[in-house]
């Protein structure tokens, strides 16, 4: 019974996701998913950029606080994705549409997730 409910919920979400933003001004589910993914990944990109700028000039002891910050941001991103999974279920079936939205709305995250350079 629970599996049937999950399948029905995913089909309903997919049907709603296929509809374009209407005149109501509401964000489509795909755009919202992409926005949420962007919010999860952006801090990772920001800390990575900071590390690329700062780590080369630091010794091991000086780098320790930044490395701890990197670990914290990565843990928060993992938790964030866990929350997205709770909110939406698996995003795997929506990956293409989410990536297309990220390409336009959140290009740095798109570049990271698609394996392209962000520089």
Question: How would you describe this protein?
Answer:
It is a single chain. The protein is an all-alpha fold. It has one domain. Helix content is 76%, strand content 0%. The chain is built from 5 helices and no strands. It has helices at residues 2-18, 29-54, 60-88, 95-105, 107-114. Helix 2 crosses helix 5 (107-114). The N and C termini lie far apart (48 Å).
List keywords for this structure.
119 residues, mainly alpha, 5 helices, 0% strand
Quick structural summary:
By secondary structure, the chain is an all-alpha fold. The protein has 5 helices and no strands.
Helices and strands in order, then pairings?
Blueprint: H1 2-18, H2 29-54, H3 60-88, H4 95-105, H5 107-114
Helix pairs in contact: 2-3, 2-4, 2-5, 4-5
